[in-house]
Write a structure and sequence with these properties.
Layout lengths: L9 E7 L3 H10 L6 E4 L15 E5 H10 L11 E3 L1 E6 L5 E5 L9 E5 H14 L3 E4 L4 E6 L9 E5 L4 E9 L6 H5 L4 E17 L6 E7 L2 E7 L5 E8 H9 L2 H11 L7 E4 L3 E10 L3 E2 L2 E3 L5 E2 L7 H21 L7 H30 L3 H15 L2 H11 L3
Parallel strand pairs: 1-2, 1-11, 2-8, 5-13, 11-19
Antiparallel strand pairs: 3-7, 4-7, 5-6, 9-10, 10-11, 12-15, 12-16, 12-17, 13-14, 14-15, 17-20, 18-19
Helix pairs in contact: 1-3, 1-7, 7-8
The chain binds flavin-adenine dinucleotide.
Length: about 400
């Protein structure tokens, strides 16, 4: 990201964090009459082959937002892999469920895309927008946030380059360890799962068939997500000991264990990238807003990655916040005041909390190796598979409807 040449010091909105969620908000505000700054500490790595290991399953809601904003016109769209089916099964029994876009009358269920590629695509839109300035790489040295209970607040953000930005609305899109959340003294419940997500890309003997595969095992879920080059991205939830032992295995051993654990759903594992571990936790901010300040994405909430919803929730936050402030401004109301921002919180907090609790519930349910629970779980999965109305409700939730 390069600083905009016409950069002013005073902005309507300063977004701290140029991850997927921060850039999604900037994109939503492109071509509006808001002046917007994005501050990001890390330079985005250049586009390279082969695919990166950090990928996201982007649901239909988010995809529609990106298509409407023009993000999907980027040539980088070829790095996105459409998935039109999902197949979920229980490793310990006969339970399984599948979702097919054709049955739902949809062209696809979503896409799998590398996180940094999506950031590049969003950035293309953002840097082309006249009303947005990007400051990257830039560290924040201090933030002066003085909320005024009623009416508008103005924050000042000082950057390591010496630049000083003022903002009527300061947005924390700065991830789970949000500094903006901290300066606003917003508490966050934080619960580690004592688990890791092992992430890597694999080539398999059988085609991924544009299907997102998810196997639930007592240790945690294992997902195979289809990639544009025929490989699959795996996200395998493991407890500490299993994660460390998987990391210590040589490639041949790991390929064999992975194929066995996935019950050869895609055949042998024929090739493998480097493996990475991410500690998993869930947490939720007690509030998303203060006068002249809002939190979006992981800064507000983080959830278990088992259903691939974290980034999707953040993208929905960005869309809701943009909608609320644009509507208020058009109506001539105080768009950065607490009474306006509370509307954003009302729109998103309940939905995000439900998703967080569902993911924790799923993790607990599938983490039980008690024979009775396992039997019930397997029967439940197969039953839902034969109940189109229930199945449709579940998939609508996952697609972000
Ligand atoms: C293993 C794994 C798999 C996942 N799979 C999926 C999936 O399939 N689908 C899905 O929807 N979600 C998935 N998620 C969740 C998803 O990755 C996150 O929810 C999402 O990336 C959060 O985006 P964000 O922009 O809010 O935060 P982040 O990605 O954390 O971005 C925050 C940005 O802010 C910047 N920043 C932080 N502090 C500062 C500062 N002081 N100054 C300037 N910049 C700053 C950071 O450099 C960063 O670029 C997964 C998560 C994990 C761990």
């Amino acid at each position: 990201m390069k600083p905009h040449e016409k950069t002013p010091a005073d902005f309507d909105v300063v977004i701290v964090g140029g991850g997927i969620v921060g850039l999604s908000l900037a994109c939503e505000l492109a071509a509006t009459d808001f002046s917007v700054a994005v501050v990001e500490r890390n330079e985005l790595k250049a586009v390279t082959e082969p695919p990166d290991c950090r990928v996201s399953a982007i649901n239909r809601f988010a995809l529609q937002q990106f298509k409407q904003a023009g993000v999907w016109r980027s040539p980088l769209v070829q790095r996105a892999c459409i998935f039109d089916k999902m197949f979920v099964w229980d490793q310990t029994g006969a339970g399984q469920i599948q979702f097919d876009s054709v049955e739902l009358g949809l062209s696809e269920l979503g896409v799998i895309i590398e996180n940094y590629i999506l950031q590049h695509m969003l950035l293309e839109m953002v840097t082309a927008a006249e009303n947005i300035s990007c400051f990257c790489p830039e560290e924040i040295t201090s933030i002066d946030y003085r909320p005024k209970a009623a009416g508008q607040s103005v924050s000042t953000v000082k950057l390591s380059s010496g630049l000083q930005l003022s903002a009527a609305l300061l947005v924390g899109a700065d991830g789970a360890n949000s500094k903006i959340r901290e300066i606003a003294s917003i508490q966050r419940s934080q619960q580690p799962y004592r688990q890791f997500g092992l992430v890597c890309n694999v080539a398999t003997a059988e085609s991924h068939q544009n299907t997102a595969w998810q196997c639930f095992m007592p240790t945690g879920p294992l997902a195979f997500l289809p990639l544009y080059n025929g490989w699959s991205s795996i996200v395998w939830t493991l407890d500490d000991d299993s994660a460390q032992s998987c990391m210590a295995m040589n490639d041949e051993e790991f390929k064999r264990v992975l194929a066995e654990e996935s019950q050869y759903q895609l055949g042998e594992i024929t090739d493998l990238s480097q493996r990475y571990l991410f500690p998993l936790a869930h947490g939720h901010a007690t509030e998303y807003v203060r006068p002249g300040l809002a939190l979006i994405g992981d800064a507000a909430h983080s959830i278990h990655p088992l259903a691939g919803q974290g980034a999707n929730l953040g993208i929905a936050d960005a869309a809701a916040l943009a909608d609320v402030i644009c509507t208020a401004r058009t109506a001539g109301r105080q768009w950065s005041a607490l009474h306006t921002l509370s509307k954003y919180q009302r729109k998103r907090k309940g939905a995000n909390r439900v998703m967080e609790m569902s993911m924790t519930g799923f993790k607990e349910l599938f983490g039980q190796d008690n024979a009775f629970v396992s039997e019930l779980r397997n029967a439940g999965l197969s039953l839902v598979d034969h109940l189109p109305a229930v199945k449709y409700r579940i998939i609508r939730q996952a697609l972000g409807a």
